[in-house]
Amino acid sequence: MLLENKTAIVTGATRGIGRAIAIRFAKEGCNVAFCGRSRGEKMIAVEQELTALGVKAKGYVADVADMEQAQAFVKEVLADFGKVDILVNNAGITDDSAVKRMTEEQMDRVMHTNLGSVFCMTKAIQPSMWKQGYGSIVNIGSVVGIAGNYNQANYAASKAAIIGFSKSCAKEFAARNIRVNVVAPGFVETEMTAEVPEELMKTWCQRIPMKRPGTPDEVAQACVFLASDMCPYITSVVLPICGGMEDA
Ligand code: NDP
Fold it and tell me: Annotated catalytic sites, by residue?
């Protein structure tokens, strides 16, 4: 198993891509601490699913875009699990609108959640990874952060900023054997994309050479690779998982 005896934090794993990452990691023997913003049925179900795979797993309530909550979350995980080898910053939101109609509030909210959470969690985890001289941080970006997209200027800006932030951290942390990489999914079928009208979905799929959306598990598999010891010399990369979309 590729992640045996490792412990990971996955943010936003109550559903979608985060949940798929948590499950893949558990299948690879990794203990998993994950979070969402409330302890609902979904969090409990994920906890049970992971535990059934034979690893230690626990769901925590934390808004990871809030520095105090991120710090408290990491502190609790370190107390419960003893160490954290891997951090996957997956939590993210959209609030789409054309720029001419986009409010400042929409811009701020998306930047605050998507970029702010990566900053808060990186700050919170850095001291322990630094001390242990080992760590892999995988930040979930988006191909939209590379290519831009209609009605998603706020989201694209937040995901582009994650790339700049990650590459800077990769440089700062490399000497302590802490790798920082970005996985940039294309169009993946989750609750986040469920509201996309069918016609628009078809148009998007036409732009994908593989002619289909990706699955959460296909993103999760790339995260396993980057989180694992299979790539000890890979840091600062942006890995698109997008079925060959040309503008990615
Ligand atoms: P979902 O909306 O299905 O899930 C988002 C998850 O993040 C939920 O578990 C949610 O939990 C959690 N979350 C949101 N905000 C916070 C917060 N502030 N603190 C803690 N948890 C939070 O999204 P996806 O699975 O589709 O997306 C996951 C990631 O992948 C995102 O970063 C997204 O931008 C990215 N991505 C998705 C693509 C897609 O096509 N689906 C394409 C490219 C990138 P809760 O509501 O319980 O708090």
Answer: 155
Please tell me if the CB atom of residue 187 comes closer than 6 angstroms to any atom of ligand 1.
yes
Q: Is 239 helix (H, G, I), strand (E, B) or coil?
A: strand
Taken in order of first residue, the domains within the chain and their CATH numbers are: 7-238 (3.40.50.720)
- Which residues contact residue 44 at a Cβ distance below 8 angstroms, ignoring those fewer than 6 apart? 59
Q: What is the C-alpha separation between 232 and 224, in angstroms, rounded?
A: 13
- Centre of ligand 1 to C-alpha 114, Å, is 9
Radius of gyration of the chain (CA): 17
Interatomic CA distance for residues 6 and 228, integer angstroms: 9
Q: Which residues pair with 8 in a beta bridge?
A: 32, 86
pLDDT digits (tens, 9 = 90+) for 86-115: 999 999 999 999 999 999 999 999 999 999
Q: Give the number of the atom of ligand 1 that is nearest the alpha carbon of residue 91.
A: 7
Provide the whole-model pTM: 0.98
- Are 156 and 148 in contact by the 8 Å Cβ rule? The answer is yes
**CA 16 to CA 30: how far, in whole Å?**
19
Length of the chain: 248
